[in-house]
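Design job #97: recover the sequence.
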C-alpha cells in the first residue's frame, strides 16, 4: 500500500471510529432520561448547560440549586421546574429524598467544588463536576472517595472529549498514525480587562490560581492526551504585568512538562495575552488544532491536510454521553481520576513556579 493510499485508509478509519460519538444523539435512550439538577446558575449554566439540556435525549433538567432567589422564577418558567425541585446551598442535602433528580451538576467557582460534590454524593446522587475538578489533589481524592462510598459516579465536565477535532487528535496520537511525537506546545489565554461581576471570582481565592486553573487546564489536558503518557517533572514560572489588578493570583503561568525519554511539552495560560492551540510535532509533520478550546469554531490539520468536521453541540454530546455511562453502568470517558491527574499537574506547575525549581511527580501517579 503506497503512502497516499495508506493515509486515505487511516483517515477513513479515523472518521469511522469517530462516527459513534458524532452521531450520539441519534441513538435511542438506554432507559428513562436521567434528571439533572444544576448547582450554580451562573453564566455557563445559563447560556450553555441549560440550553443543552433542552436538546439531550438521555438527560433532562429537573432541578436547580442556587443562592440567588431572584433567578428562580425565570428558571422555573423556562424549564418547567416544580417548586419542590428548587434548592439553595443550605437545603442541598434534602435532595436525597427527590426521586426526580439523579445527577447534580456542580457549576460553581473551583474553590467550592469539593464541598458541593461531596454533599451531592452523600445524598446518593451521581455527580458531574465542572473543570478544573478541585483546588488540590487531596480535595479530588475526598470527592472520589465520597462517590465510591455512596455508590454513585463522579465525572468531570470535559466537553472536548466529545469534540470531533480533539477525538481525531487523540486517535492519531494513540495509534501513532503519523509517527511518534517529538515535541508538544499548547496555550490557552485571553486578555481580561473586566474584573467585576461575573469575572470577579476569577482573580480571587475561589479561582485557586487564576488563568492557570481556569484556562490552563485545557492546555494541560490537551498536552496529556497528545503525549499519551504522564510527565516525570515540570518546570514553571509565573509573571504579572498589571500588578494593580492581579493582587491575589499571577496574570500568566508558563510551564514545561518533561517525559520519560526527555521529550518536552511547553505550555502557557494567561489573563494578559491571548492564544488558543494545541500542536504536536510528529515524524511526518504537525498535528494542530487552532483555535482549540472554545465551544465551537475549531480548526485542525494533520500531515494529511485539514480536518474536515462539522460543528457539534459539545455540551449536548457531553451530557448525553455521561448520562449513558450511568444508564449502561459503563466506565466514564472523563472520570474523577482523570480530573485528579490534571490537578496534580496544575499543582506541580504552581509549586515549581513558587520555588523556582523543577517539581518532580515521582511516585505520585495513580
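Job complete. Output follows.
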Amino acid at each position: 500500500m503506497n503512502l497516499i493510499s495508506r493515509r486515505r485508509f487511516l483517515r477513513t478509519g479515523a472518521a469511522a471510529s469517530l462516527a459513534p460519538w458524532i452521531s450520539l444523539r441519534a441513538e435511542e435512550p438506554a432507559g428513562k432520561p436521567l434528571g439533572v439538577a444544576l448547582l450554580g446558575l451562573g453564566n455557563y449554566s445559563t447560556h450553555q448547560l441549560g440550553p443543552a439540556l433542552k436538546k439531550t435525549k438521555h438527560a433532562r433538567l429537573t432541578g436547580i440549586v442556587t443562592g440567588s432567589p431572584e433567578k428562580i422564577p425565570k428558571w422555573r418558567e423556562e424549564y418547567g421546574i416544580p417548586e419542590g425541585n428548587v434548592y439553595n446551598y443550605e437545603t442541598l442535602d434534602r435532595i436525597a429524598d427527590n426521586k426526580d433528580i439523579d445527577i447534580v451538576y456542580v457549576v460553581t467557582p473551583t474553590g467550592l467544588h469539593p464541598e458541593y460534590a461531596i454533599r451531592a454524593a452523600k445524598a446518593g446522587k451521581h455527580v458531574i463536576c465542572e473543570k478544573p475538578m478541585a483546588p488540590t489533589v487531596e480535595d479530588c481524592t475526598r470527592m472520589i472517595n465520597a462517590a465510591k462510598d455512596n455508590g454513585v459516579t463522579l465525572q468531570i465536565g470535559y466537553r472536548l472529549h466529545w469534540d470531533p477535532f480533539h477525538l481525531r487528535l487523540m486517535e492519531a496520537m494513540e495509534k501513532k498514525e503519523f509517527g511518534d511525537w517529538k515535541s508538544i506546545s499548547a496555550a490557552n489565554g485571553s486578555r481580561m480587562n473586566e474584573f467585576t461581576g461575573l469575572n470577579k471570582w476569577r482573580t480571587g481565592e475561589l479561582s485557586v490560581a487564576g488563568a492557570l486553573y481556569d484556562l490552563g487546564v485545557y492546555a494541560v489536558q490537551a498536552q496529556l492526551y497528545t503525549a499519551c503518557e504522564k510527565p516525570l517533572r515540570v518546570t514553571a514560572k509565573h509573571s504579572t504585568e498589571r500588578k494593580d489588578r492581579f493582587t491575589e493570583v499571577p496574570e500568566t503561568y508558563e510551564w514545561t512538562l518533561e517525559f520519560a525519554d526527555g521529550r518536552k511539552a511547553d505550555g502557557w495560560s494567561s489573563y494578559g495575552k491571548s492564544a488558543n492551540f494545541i500542536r504536536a510535532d510528529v515524524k511526518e509533520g504537525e498535528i494542530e488544532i487552532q483555535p482549540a478550546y472554545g465551544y465551537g469554531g475549531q480548526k485542525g490539520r494533520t500531515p494529511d491536510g485539514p480536518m474536515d468536521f462539522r460543528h457539534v453541540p459539545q455540551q449536548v454530546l457531553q451530557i448525553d454521553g455521561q448520562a449513558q455511562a450511568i444508564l449502561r453502568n459503563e466506565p466514564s470517558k472523563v472520570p474523577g481520576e482523570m480530573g485528579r491527574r490534571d490537578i496534580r499537574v496544575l499543582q506541580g506547575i504552581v509549586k515549581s513556579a513558587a520555588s523556582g525549581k523543577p517539581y518532580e511527580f515521582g511516585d505520585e501517579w495513580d
